[in-house]
Amino acid sequence: MEFERDLRVTETNIPGLLVVDLPVHGDARGWFKENWQREKMVALGLPDFRPVQNNISFNASRGVTRGVHAEPWNKFVSVATGRIFGAWVDLRPGGTFGEVYTCEVGPDRAVFTPRGVGNSFQALEDGTAYTYLVDAHWSAELKGTYTFVSLADPALGIDWPIPLSEATLSEADRGHPMLADALPMAPERTLVTGCNGQLGRAVRRLAEGRGLLGSFDFCDIDEFDFSDPAQYGRVDWSLYGTVINCGAYTAVDRAEAPEGRAACWGANATGPALLARACAERGVTLVHVSSDYVFDGSADNHGEGEPLSPLSVYGQSKAAGDLAVAGCPRHYVVRSSWVIGEGRNFVRTMAALSRRCADPSDPLGRVTVVDDQLGRLTFADQMAEGILWLLGYRDGDLEPSSPAPYGTYNLTGSGRVASWADVAREVFDATCGNGEAVAPVSTEEYYASASGPVAPRPARSDLDLSKIGATGFSPRDWEDELSEYLEGLDE
């Protein structure tokens, strides 16, 4: 055992499997080590996996060998006394299925083992104590989701220091299947709330296109009202590694009236707070969709760190939801503006009005649209793409492989900043070539004759996209997306 070396984290050939060299301090009396030090290890690249249970496997004699088991949790493997030869096999579905990594582990080394990677070991000394931290509590139900592979399979090529014919194995470990017959570990499931909204539908389409529907569950408010604390007991949270919350109350003017205020706060603040608590308690990643309305629109460009300054009831409820979700350790707040997807939206309305204005028999000749609110359109399909990107899904991935750091990300279309009137002209020109039928007016003029309450709008909704761009995701230009969207309306 090497004393006084630096703490170091090293990647291996199995994605997510990390070797940790531990500083051990010793003298004639013995030694001391920090076996798990969250702050230092996370800073060096170890996932912040927040263990909830510590287990010890005592191995009385040299040669005791434990089979290759993959379990539905992350593990931090180390040794308290003695030494082991460890072997890890990737049993997750995908291109690295069957990949093998081996090394010796003593008190001066640990190995972070991600969910779905099988691990086995052979005690190299009498009295070896093999210890491991896990981030889920053991249960009989979860035990039924384990998967195994034979530690003697020649296809794995594991060079055991002590021949298996001389080792001590259980009958169960002797009977595990060869790699060719082993079942891949089922991915953690993803729960999508608000599945019937514009974003929820886009997430479903993308998941279907990526072959992910088998691990995604979709629900709407009639199946799971996430603003109702009594309904959380109906969800089997042990199934889920991620929740994507697409549900929201978006009737911004109705929220200013007494009958809409409570519903708005329930969906946009209370619900996200309850989801955040449920996810935090179970180590689940929570994706929550935010809005440009959390800002007052006075800045030319809104970064993620700008102080919240909502003007309306809707904006205040969204800001409250953002703050609640930020308390969940594994969270992404995805901030959008001017969302366009399936169903009723501004672009569809303008396309329909363009056709009416092109009809000489219709008395409607011009349409007034505000020109003093500036921003960019956000197409729901791009939001869905960006959310899966942040979660770590890359093309062909059946489960996340390289997620972005947790936190808040702006996600809108890229391109020029425009007014609602500018967008309307583009829609009119593309639909019937009659962009001149759009008459720009101020927000004050537009709502001067409104019969009910009107929510104040942010004047500028231009969100800075540099942070999400740094993760490698580049949102498409909203004008290119608009052209394709309008072509789809004509089909």
TrEMBL record:
Q: Sorted alphabetically, which Gene3D superfamilies does this protein's record hold?
A: Jelly Rolls (2.60.120.10), NAD(P)-binding Rossmann-like Domain (3.40.50.720), UDP-galactose 4-epimerase, domain 1 (3.90.25.10)
Tell me the protein family, please.
Belongs to the dTDP-4-dehydrorhamnose 3,5-epimerase family.
Active-site residues annotated for this sequence = 69 (proton acceptor), 132 (proton donor)
What is the organism of origin for this protein? Answer: Candidatus Olsenella pullistercoris
Q: Where are the transmembrane segments?
A: none
Site (Participates in a stacking interaction with the thymidine ring of dTDP-4-oxo-6-deoxyglucose) at 138
Q: PANTHER family, per this entry?
A: DTDP-6-DEOXY-D-GLUCOSE-3,5 EPIMERASE, THYMIDINE DIPHOSPHO-4-KETO-RHAMNOSE 3,5-EPIMERASE
A biological process term (GO) from this entry: dTDP-rhamnose biosynthetic process
Which is a Gene Ontology cellular component entry for this protein? cytosol
Mind telling me which Pfam families this protein's record contains?
A: dTDP_sugar_isom, RmlD_sub_bind
Q: Which GO terms describe its molecular function?
A: dTDP-4-dehydrorhamnose 3,5-epimerase activity
InterPro entries linked to this entry: NAD(P)-bd_dom_sf, RmlC-like, RmlC-like_jellyroll, RmlC_Cupin_sf, RmlD-like-bd
Per UniProt, residues of the RmlD-like substrate binding domain are 189-488
Designated name of the protein: Sugar nucleotide-binding protein
Where is the stretch described as Disordered? 451-475
